[in-house]
Amino acid sequence: MSAGDVDLAAALRLLPHGPEFRFVDRLLRLTPGREGVGEYLVRGDEPFLRGHFPGEPLMPGVLILEACAQLAGVVAQSDPAIPPLPGLKLTALRAVKILGTTRPGEVLRLEARVTGRLGHLIHATAAASLDGRMLLQAELVLAGGAEVASAGANFNFAKQPPG
After folding, report:
1. Cβ contacts of residue 106 below 8 Å, gap of 6+?
2. Cα separation, 148 vs 58, whole angstroms
3. pTM (2 decimals)?
4. Rounded CA gap, 127 and 134, in Å?
5. What is the spatial distance between Cα 96 and Cα 24, in angstroms, rounded to a whole number?
6. In angstroms, rounded to a whole number, what is the distance separating the alpha carbons of residues 22 and 12?
């Protein structure tokens, strides 16, 4: 599917993030439920750049990872054969390699591929690059569904007594 066939705003609405925490600006290609390619332009006015680092702004590697996870979520949630999972969230990371970063004015290329599903769990691989240079590679697990969407209300973070 080409970028013209994809409504990015509709795809992003399937994720739990607000507009101020979205790191996918464009979808270049989407095979619903399987793989996608997107972009994020580091504009330079993002609040995180003021502190990372003053005078030499760099997009944090963890936010590049978040951008990849968001694209993986868009890919997974677009599967026409499987209803979108409410409250889809990044729940596990594996084999993460942060090999570089990006600066204001640069366009980050994002790629994500869904490699497996089991109930409310989605396994994906993701990568980010800049001008053909690999910046990040990772394996991701996303989880969604009614039980995941409401889980925050059920967690008790108070320290439990032993035994």
Report:
1. 41, 42, 130
2. 32
3. 0.86
4. 7
5. 19
6. 8
Task: Please identify which of the residues 17, 52, 120, 123 carries the catalytic annotation.
Answer: 52
Q: What is the pLDDT of residues 42-64, one digit of tens each?
A: 999 999 998 888 899 999 999 99
Would you call 9 helix, strand, or coil by DSSP?
helix
> CA-CA distance, 50 to 56, in Å (whole number)?
9
Tell me how far CA of residue 128 lies from CA of 30, 51, 95, 112, in angstroms.
16, 22, 14, 9
d(CA 29, CA 107): 16
> Does the annotation count 52 as an active-site position?
yes
Cis bond upstream, residue 21 (ω within 30): no
Chain position carrying tokens 């590679």: 137
The first and second tokens of residue 52, run together, are: 């990372």
pLDDT in tens, 144-155: 986 654 544 333
Residue type, 24: V
Domain positions in the chain are 3-148
CATH match of 3-148 with 3.40.50.300: no
Q: What whole-number distance in Å separates Cα of residue 93 and Cα of residue 124?
A: 10
DSSP, residue by residue, 148-162? HHTHHHH---SPPPP
| CA–CA separation, 139 and 56 (whole Å) | 29
